[in-house]
Amino acid sequence: MTVRINDILDEVSAYAPDAENRIIEKAYVFSARVHQGQTRLSGEPYLNHPLEVANLIAQMHLDVTAVTAALLHDAIEDSLTGVEDIRAEFGDEVAQVVDGLTKISKIDFRSEEEQQAENFRKMILAMSKDLRILLIKLADRLHNMRTLQYHDRSSQVRIARETLEIYAPLANRLGIHWLQVELEELSLHFLEPDHYRVLKENLDSIEQEKEGYLKEIIGKVQNQLAEAGINAEIKSRIKNIYSVYQKLHKQGIPFENVYDVLGIRIIVSTVAECYESLGIIHSLWKPIQSRIKDFIAMPKPNRYQSLHTTVFGPGGQRIEIQIRTAEMEYIANEGIAAHWRYKDGSQISEQDGERLSWLRQLLEWQRELKDPKEFLQSVKIDLYPEDVYVFTPKGDVYRFPVGATPLDYAYAVHTQLGHQCIGAKINGQIVPLRYKLNSGDVVEILRSAKQHPSKDWLRIAKTSRARTKIRTWLRTQEREQSIALGREILEKKFKSLHLSKEADIEKLTKEFSFKSADDFFAAIGFGRLSINQVVHKVSPEVQKREEKEPLPKKRRDSSGILVKGVENLLVKFARCCRPIPGDEVIGFISRGRGITVHRTTCPYVADIDPQRLISVEWDTSFQAEIHEIEFSVVCEDKPGMLGSITAIIGSQNINISKLKAYSLANGNSICVFRVMVKDVNEQEKLFQEIRRLKGVERIDRQ
C-alpha cells in the first residue's frame, strides 16, 4: 500500500503531539515539486520513495528535522535545487542533514571499489556529526532493497552484497534489530533466491508443526514464574532466515541438524527478576552450559542486554530462551533510535552518546588509512563484532572480536606496548602471539625494547586499530630505509661520474615533481625513479658519453623476468603462489633482496604496501626453465585412483617432487602434488588429462 503524507503526519502526531507538522507538510510540497515528472524503475512516481523513507523515520519516532530531511534527501541530487535553497526554506539544521546525505552519494572515483570505500568513509564522517544522517541512509537503503526486483540481475547482486556487508552490520552496531533482520533477509533473497526459498518453507513448516509445543512450554514457564511472584510477558519465536543460513554455512550442516530453531522470550520488570527467572528455567530443564550468556553484565557493543540460555525441553528438543526487562526489549529492537526519540530538537545526551563510542574509535583508526581497499577491509572488520571479553591483571575489561590475539590486546592498551610485544601470559601461562583470546582470559603482555613489528603481524592482528598501527610503523621504517638507500645510490653514481658538485638536489626535486628531497630519494630507493634518468637531467652530455662507450656483453637474467624501469636486480619467485611463465605477475621490492615475483591473484599481495609493488613481465624471448607448482586433486577415495593420476603425470614427462594424500569424511580423498613444469600451457595440458579421469571432481592450483 502506498504511503501518504497523512500517514506520516498521523504517526508523528501520535508520539509528538506538539510537533510542528507544518514543516513536514511544507517539505512534502517542496519534494513533490522538485521530483515532478520523475519515475522510478518500477514506473511509479519518484515521490513515493521519499515518502516511504520518511515513513520509516517516523516509525523510528525520530524528530521533525529527521522526518523533514527524509522527505528532502534526494532533492539536491536529483534536481537543480541547492543546499542554500533548502537552508532558506527549512533552516540550518535540516540543510545540514540533507547536505550530509547528498555528499555521501555525489562522489565520482576511478573504480567501483574506490567509490564504495570513499562513500563509506564519507558516510562515517557525516554520521559522526549527526546520527540522523545514518538513520535516514539506512531507511533509504531499506526501501531500495524492498524494490530491488526492478533492477537487472547484476545490479541486484551488487546492491544486495553491499547491503549485507555494510548496511545490515551498521544496523546491528546501532542495535536496530528489526532493520538489520529485514536487510539481511532481503539481501539473501536476491543473492541466493533458491536457498532463501527452501529455508523459508522449512521454517514456516516448523512454526506450524511446533505451535502447540511452544504453547505448552510457555504455559509451564508462565505458571512457574507466577508461583515465584514474577509477572512476565512470554513470546514464542523462530530463528530468522539469515541466522539459520549463517549457521548452515559456517558449520556445514544440513537444515535437519539445526536444533535450536525454536525459542521463547521472557520479559520481566527488573534485572533481579531476569536472574531469578533464569534459575527457575534451569530448574525446569537441563541447560547446555556452553550456551549460557550474560549480556546484562557485559552488554554487546551496540548496548544490547539480555540473558541467553539453551535448554533441553520436553522430548529432548532444544529451546533457546532470552530473558530481559521491558526497557531492554525496546532497546534491543530500536537500538540507538530508542535514544533519539522526539526531544524537541535537543541533541543526543552524553550517556546516549557513549553508545556511539565504537563510531568515534572507527573514525579515529581510519584517519591513517589512505588506500581505499585497506579502508573498506578495515570498516568491514569493525562492523562484525562478537563477544570476547578479556581482563587485565588489575581486572579491567577489554572487548574484542572473535579471533582477536594478544597482539590486538597490546595495541588496544598502548601503541608502544603493541610495537614491543613478544608474547603474552594468558591465565598465567605463556602463549604465542597467534593465540586466540577467549572470554574470561586474564592477559599480561610480554615486551622487549628490541622488538618491533613485522609484516607477518598483519596476518595475526584482527582489529583495525592494531593493523593500522602496524602498517603505519612498517611504512615509516620502509620509507626511512628507502630514503637512505636512494641517497647512497645517488652519491655513488655522481661520484663515479664526477658530478657531485653539479648536483642541486632541491632543483632536481622540483624538476621531477616531488614535494621534498626525501620523496625524491625515496623514489630512487624504491626503484620507481631510475638513476639514469637523474644523470640525464643533471648532465645530458655525460649520459650520451656513457651510451656511446662500448658496454660489456650483458648477462641475460636467468629468471626470465623483465622488470620495467629497473635493471640488474636480483629476482626470485614467491613460494606462497609459485608463479610460472604465462601467469599474470607482479613484483614486490624487498629491502636488500631484490624483487620477489608473485602471481597477481596471490592473497599475500593484498597485504603488501602498494608503494613497493612494481610492474614485471615474462621475457618471451627467454628459453623457459622448469618451475615447481603445487596443486590438489579432489577425487573418489577408491583403489587405483592415485596410481592413475601419477601415471598421467608420468606420461606427460613431468617430474613429481612431492606427493601427499588424505582421506575425507565424505568418501573422497585429496591428493596434493608438487610437479615441475615449463609454463602455464604445460600445466593446463596436464590438468585437462587429469580431469578426464572418472572420479576426479576438482583440481585446484595452490
Segments where pLDDT lies below 50 for 5+ residues? 340-352, 550-557
CATH topology of the largest domain: Hypothetical protein af1432
The proportion of residues forming helix, as a percent range, comes to 40-55%
Largest sheet: 6 strands, mixed
Mean pLDDT: 80
CA-atom Rg in angstroms: 31 Å
C-alpha end-to-end distance = 53 Å
SSE blueprint and pairings:
Layout: H1 5-15, H2 21-34, H3 48-59, H4 64-71, H5 83-90, H6 92-105, H7 112-129, H8 131-146, H9 153-173, H10 177-191, H11 193-209, H12 211-227, E1 233-238, H13 241-251, E2 262-268, H14 271-284, E3 286-287, E4 293-294, E5 307-312, E6 318-325, H15 326-334, H16 350-353, H17 357-366, H18 372-382, E7 388-391, E8 397-400, H19 406-413, H20 415-419, E9 421-426, E10 429-431, E11 443-447, H21 457-460, H22 464-496, H23 505-511, H24 517-526, H25 531-538, H26 540-548, E12 561-563, E13 571-573, E14 585-590, E15 594-599, E16 613-614, E17 616-618, E18 627-636, H27 641-651, E19 655-663, E20 668-677, H28 680-691, E21 696-701
Parallel strand pairs: 2-6, 13-15
Antiparallel strand pairs: 1-2, 3-5, 4-5, 5-6, 7-8, 9-10, 9-11, 12-17, 14-15, 14-16, 18-20, 18-21, 19-20
Helix pairs in contact: 1-2, 1-3, 2-4, 3-4, 3-8, 4-6, 5-6, 6-7, 6-8, 7-8, 7-17, 7-18, 8-10, 9-10, 10-11, 11-13, 19-22, 22-24, 25-26
